[in-house]
UniProtKB/TrEMBL annotation:
UniProt keyword list: ATP-binding, DNA-binding, Nucleotide-binding, Phosphoprotein, Transcription, Transcription regulation
Modification type 4-aspartylphosphate: residues: 58
Protein name in UniProt: DNA-binding transcriptional response regulator, NtrC family, contains REC, AAA-type ATPase, and a Fis-type DNA-binding domains
PANTHER family: ALGINATE BIOSYNTHESIS TRANSCRIPTIONAL REGULATORY PROTEIN ALGB (PTHR32071:SF113), TRANSCRIPTIONAL REGULATORY PROTEIN (PTHR32071)
Domain annotation Response regulatory: ranges: 9-123
Source organism (scientific name): Desulfatibacillum alkenivorans DSM 16219
Taxonomy of the source species: Bacteria, Pseudomonadati, Thermodesulfobacteriota, Desulfobacteria, Desulfobacterales
Amino acid sequence: MEEQTKLKTALIVDDEPVVRSGISRIVTHMGLKPDDAADGKEAISKMSDSYFDIIFLDVRMQGMGGMEVLGWIKDNNISSLVVMITGVTEPDIIIQAMKMGAFDYLAKPFGVDDIENIIQRAEKASAPPAQTIGIPKSKGLQAGPDRIMLGSSPVMQSLFTRMLKVAPTDGTVLITGESGTGKELVARAIHYHSRRRENEFVPVDCSALVENLLESELFGHVKGSFTGALQSKKGLFELANHGTFFFDEISNLSMDIQAKLLRVIQEREFTQVGGAVRIKVDLRIMVASNRDLRAAIAENKFREDLFYRLHVIPIHLPPLRERGKDIEELVNYFVLHMSRKIGREAPRVSREAMDVLLSYAWPGNVRELENTIERTLILKDDAVIKPEHLPQDIRQQPPDLRSFSDKMVSLKDLERDYIRFVLSRTNGGIQKAAGILGINRKTLSMKMKKYGL
């Protein structure tokens, strides 16, 4: 692993002497050399003469405020990591500062641990990680020390703004979108920008857990509560205490587990399997689904009361085909990231190959794009990625879909051909194809019968 660059200097800008001296003592203890400034003008004067690896900058000061200083830092292309100091949680100010390039924020009152955690994260960020090489920071949103969401398209920039606005709250978040769009990454990003980020983010894929073991996994169990329970075990809810719990594909939960989850959301407490003691938890719950939960309610497969408890803050993640030139940005990112991962020099993507990638429908969304780039890099070691290096199914769209620009077809024919296309991409998997098409399995089966597919 590449050695991280250690921070050496810090500038503390605050009009309160006790804040300046307090942060100075902490960063000195961590091996940094501190300097301070009592107002914005003094800070600019010091930054004009010296470079600081990290800057703690108070938002509200007399005269020139922190946001004005941050603007000066941006205008002068100073690469210092800037941490904004706020008196209270101010989502709008935080969002604006992050958009202007601030690295993080620190809410008063804060403790030694808060400063130390920020310094540790800053040290990780000071050496450019593989996933951010060549990617302008303004186009992405960090989802963790080693994760980033990318997208300069208006729809993604709007999404990032919404995510930053809801991050400081504890509202339950319902993330919807097709398979492969990155719903878990959205949840991780919200957690990373929340007050809970130093605590656990616990993800659970509801489609991957065996039903008869799910209750024990979630709630834990006491010794002897069922055959094989040789000792007591804490559940995932308890492990996520003070952090964030994320349910992926929530629609796969049984009605019985849904009822128990509803009680956890309402009361923030639960009992272990076979236990009688009520265990209280402080956690934020986020869930994701690629299914239409309202349709699942109509089919009596999802509780309506649970839906409204989850639908506090809805966030929809668009499919890759609706994100325009984000595809090009993601391709360049994955090429750089995967090349470092497999230990090779990053190749250049030819314009012709990029055009092929841009014209493909990507039914598997970002996950399919990532897998395509990784496979291409592993199988081909050329200095330039050309169209012939891409997988055949990417290069060769079905003829009936490619020719829509040359001939007019009926809506019925269009639907039939697209269903055939999606089924071919999912190897005939009806459940997965239904998710991509945004319909339920029964509706897809009826359409397949109608079109003789």
